[in-house]
Amino acid sequence: MARPLRVEYEGAIYHVMARGNLRQAIFRSPKDRLRFLDKLEETAERHGLRVYAWALMTTHYHILLCTPRGNLSRAMHQLQSSYSTYVRVRHSLSGHVFGGRYKARLVEGDQYLLALIRYIHLNPLHTDAITALSFEEKVDYLRRYAWSSHRDYGGYRRRFNWLLREPLLNLVAEGRSDREAAYRTFVISNIDRQDVELEKAMALSSKAIGSSAFCAWAEDAHREVLSKQGSPEDAAMRKLEAVVSPELVERTVAQQAKTTVSNLLHGRGNNNNRDVLLIAWRDLSGLSNREIGHRLGHADGATVGKRFKQLQHQPQYYAEIYSAVVRIKNGSIANCKA
């Protein structure tokens, strides 16, 4: 399989952004936004991401994150494909949810991280209706806006435990004890003015945000990846939303196991086949732990999450199970009727 055209390395930091297909809504209700955040949490846990900031708008989202394992493409594949599956099922839609590939620009370091967190958290103010508000009204609107990590940074709530805010709060506070107050001052001071320095940095390259030297390095690194790929397409992301229906996965695994779907889902024993089903649902259908749990009759995804963690500590067995999932993807799925 062709390598995705992303400059990936351990510890890389990215500003990730994606829009809806044809700039249509990707979040149609509060439930949609909560489901996306659930999936972001699951993706971060599974792939070891460090999520620094996020903002969900109606037609797009922003995420600032770090990849200690150098695995951005795999992580984003899980996030966007699983959310796309949810949206199509919940809203009875067909076709693509996201408009092409997500954008991911490398971020150089401290000063750019702080500027980007402010940029992301001020994003909800960038609409015609909000732009016309007074300064005080904008501050209040931002404080009440539920769909970004601004409220967590500002001390208005502490809801998302997977959000890693400590490094940036320490950075913005510069040794002061009230870090949340320092953050609020830092953000509010820029509500009615542009960050000229950040705009200059963002204009230097489509691949990175940082100094001219860092952006030049990122451009060179991207060209090197492109030369090794030998193709202008990001092959991994080209099939981003080509997910397999959970029902087809069930039938295929049951067929291979020579059992019924009912016995596969609810029968005793068949632990190996059940593990194949869990991983296939997760990686081929993009289901979350909670969605898998519901399909198995559980109240939530806790039992499923626990089983995935157990599998991670059985590398040889996991490799055998995953080989079965790959065979399903490459062979049996194609030979089954949807």
Give a description of the structure.
The radius of gyration is 22 Å and the shape is globular. The chain has helices at residues 30-47, 72-90, 110-122, 128-131, 135-144, 150-153, 166-173, 179-188, 196-203, 212-229, 235-238, 246-257, 261-266, 271-284, 289-295, 302-312, 315-335; strands at 12-19, 50-56, 60-67, 103-107, 208-209. The longest helix is centred in the last third of the chain and has 21 residues, at 315-335. With 338 residues, the chain is α+β, with helices and mostly antiparallel strands. The protein folds into two domains: 12-238, Transposase IS200-like (Alpha-Beta Plaits, 2-Layer Sandwich); 246-335, Chromosomal Replication Initiator Protein Dnaa, Chain: A (Orthogonal Bundle). It has a five-stranded mixed beta sheet with strand order 2-3-1-4-5, with helices on both faces.
How many DSSP H or I helices? 17
Terminal CA distance: 25 Å
CATH superfamily descriptor of the largest domain: Transposase IS200-like
Number of domains in the coordinates? 2
List the secondary-structure elements in sequence, H or E: EHEEHEHHHHHHHEHHHHHHHH
Topology-level CATH name of the largest domain: Alpha-Beta Plaits
Number of strands: 5
Helix residue percentage = 55-70%
